[in-house]
Amino acid sequence: MDRQQQDSRDALMRDPYPLYARARAATGLTFVPEFDAWLVARDADVREVLRRPDDFSSAQVLRGDVRPSAEAFAVLGEGFGGRRDAVSADGAEHRRLRAPLIRGLSAARVAQVVPYARERAEELVDSFVGEGRVELMEAYARRLPGDVVGRLAGLDPADVPQVVHGGHQAERLLFPPMDEAGQVATSQDIVTMQQILDGYVCDRRAAPREDLCTELVAALAPGPADEPLTLEQRHELVAQLQNFLIAGHLTTTALIGTTVLHLLRHPDQWERLTAEPARIPAVIEEAARYDAPLQAFRRVTTRDVALAGTELPEGSEVLVAFGAAGRDAALHPSPDVFDIERRQGARHLAFGLGAHACVGAQLAREQLGITLELLTRRLPGLRLADDRPAVTMRPTLIHRAPEALHLTW
């Protein structure tokens, strides 16, 4: 990909909504060269793809836009993982890998971790509330979700920062291009994360606990405590745990960042929310609809199919745009307007649908609700800093979030 193509692709990912609007208005599907895929942008078409997992495989769901260098691959070969996870598996394999995540993120488990999430959120705000200003993404949005999913998984708090960093690096390696040295350094961070997680899965085999890591080991590698895990089992378990942790913290980080951004870009709505915190549940749904934290995932056709009147041969890649579906006027009147008083009629697709619907959606909602209650109560005068550059979004469709969010009060 040359520099001009890269710039065009980055611009599309920083603001994909004009492209989405053109694709929804077009007849059939729109092929987007920058993504080398057919864009699925209408709500009805997105729903159809998600309801047909046998025809639209998830095998390439996280295919990156750049291929790491041979040196980076060599480093990655020293780590663990590299196996299908619940996001990229299909059929019976997907159900097998997803089942322990569903149990680990049950309503009861989420309820148990909420008091910790609330306490940790208060501590984070305490650390900057007296400063009069903060860069929210680094000081709060990238920290709370990692601490919470680390707690659910059973990680030592001392290991969480390295694991969170490794998760961010794993996403970076797939998308924005880096030079060879950057790819190698990023790969080393990923391997360090995987080695930490391998230690946990081996420990939980020998000494089970009440945490999601134990749930994964018991479900995917059953056996007596005195029987060590095989190397293949360790690879699979690290892949599943890595997927859970990355999805758990990156998605929620993105949702916190975009929600606060859009509220503060509409000061009247922020003021309304501070006066009426009972609106928080409605704000969460409107924010997720308006700017989905997970914008799009890839699917690959397993046979010749037709979608929206477009013939797709077997092996065709489609980009299923949850973010585009949220702005579909067929379901959401005045879809480009952020309105916390919106009456949510049709269910938005920000957290997916069907077999691959996000199992952590309720946990994400709980953390965003805690955040909004806390910020409106303790920092009602919050506003975007006017002495900093305009907010820019990260150039990725996986976890859409501000690169930085400078706030004052």
From TrEMBL:
Which keywords accompany this UniProt record? Heme, Iron, Metal-binding, Monooxygenase, Oxidoreductase
Supply the Pfam families for this chain: p450
Q: What SUPFAM superfamilies does this protein's entry cite? A: Cytochrome P450 (SSF48264)
* PROSITE patterns in the cross-refs: CYTOCHROME_P450
Alphabetized InterPro entries for the sequence: Cyt_P450, Cyt_P450_B, Cyt_P450_CS, Cyt_P450_sf
Report a single Gene Ontology molecular function.
oxidoreductase activity, acting on paired donors, with incorporation or reduction of molecular oxygen
Could you tell me the superkingdom of the organism this chain comes from? Bacteria
Regarding protein family, the annotation reads: Belongs to the cytochrome P450 family.
Q: Which PANTHER family match?
A: P450, PUTATIVE (EUROFUNG)-RELATED
Question: What name is this protein filed under?
Answer: Putative cytochrome P450 hydroxylase
According to its UniProt entry, this protein's organism is: Streptomyces formicae
